[in-house]
Design a protein that fits this description.
The chain has about 270 residues and is α/β, with parallel strands linked by helices. It is built from 10 helices and 7 strands. The protein has a single domain, classed as NAD(P)-binding Rossmann-like Domain (Rossmann fold), CATH 3.40.50. Helix 2 links the parallel strand 2 and strand 3. The model has no long low-confidence stretch (mean pLDDT about 95).
């Protein structure tokens, strides 16, 4: 532990598993206190029990509800007396094109992925201003900058999060509040593992074999682990990044540099000009 986040308190939505849990663990390792939130107290408490005593508090709630978001912020203040860092990580990703995704799932996706970040940010900013500034890190996705088949709700919510991040960074930079995005590519979370089970079964491979199939055209031909995202979150939360704001940093194994045409050529073992 190098103590890069000593004396800081972080609030992490969706903090009981996946990327949120990896970030929480990395923050505690760097000296921070964390509050993890989500809709399942049992999962949150099980995760908190894996961290050193006194470093992690939990708050059950639904970020789609403004009153719950406000209560989460107040829970951080009650637990540790201050708030320095907000991680908007909670998200859902139901599939379906615009003509077949159920309308309630579309609304739930926008409510969770975009409106939830708005509520959490709205109630956190006054607390950050009281501290003289702080860091907000929104977890987006490469789907916010590149289309994914049959995922319009998820893509729209993540693209909206990019614009939201830029606007908040602009409005509150003079208060010492920095706002940035991390946009992961395929990441080995439980959410994605569940999503690729059908592909894995159809191809006779396990979920990591399925990850290999969907990332075969990427420069780094594998899925990211949540623990590989956490170090960037530590950097963006720390004073080392005090001149970094309004940025969308992709952790995608190079996925977004690949041309679909070039990938199709490589499938047949061909190169341009052959």
């Amino acid at each position: 532990m190098s103590g890069r986040l000593n004396e800081k308190t972080a609030l992490i939505t969706g903090g009981g598993a996946g990327i949120g849990a990896a970030i929480a663990k990395a923050f505690v390792d760097e000296g921070a206190k964390v509050v993890v939130t989500g809709r399942g107290r049992e999962k949150l408490e099980a995760f908190a029990a894996t961290l050193p005593e006194g470093t992690c508090a939990v708050c059950e709630g639904d970020i789609r509800k403004a009153e719950d978001a406000e209560a989460m912020v107040e829970a951080a203040i009650k637990a540790f007396g201050k708030l320095d860092i907000l991680i908007n990580n909670a998200g859902i990703d139901p599939p379906g094109t615009v003509t077949d995704i159920p309308i309630d799932q579309w609304l739930a996706t926008i409510d969770t992925n975009l409106n939830g970040a708005f509520y959490m940010t709205r109630f956190s900013i006054p607390k950050l201003i009281e501290r003289g500034g702080g860091s907000i890190i929104n977890i987006s996705s490469i789907s916010g900058v590149r289309a994914i088949p049959a995922m319009p709700a998820y893509s729209a919510s993540k693209a909206g999060l990019i614009g939201f991040t830029n606007a908040v960074a602009l409005d509150y930079g003079s208060y010492g509040i920095r706002v940035n995005l991390i946009s992961p590519g395929s990441t080995a979370t439980d959410m994605l593992k569940n999503k690729v089970k059908g592909l894995a079964d159809s191809q006779g491979v396990d979920v990591y074999g399925a990850f290999g199939l969907i990332t075969r055209f990427n420069p780094i031909k594998r899925a990211c682990e949540p623990s590989e995202i956490a170090p960037l979150a530590v950097f963006l939360a720390s004073d080392e990044s005090r001149f970094v704001t309004g940025q969308n940093i992709l952790i995608d194994g190079g996925a977004t540099v690949v041309s679909p045409n070039g990938a199709a050529m490589s499938l047949f073992g061909k190169a341009w000009g052959e």
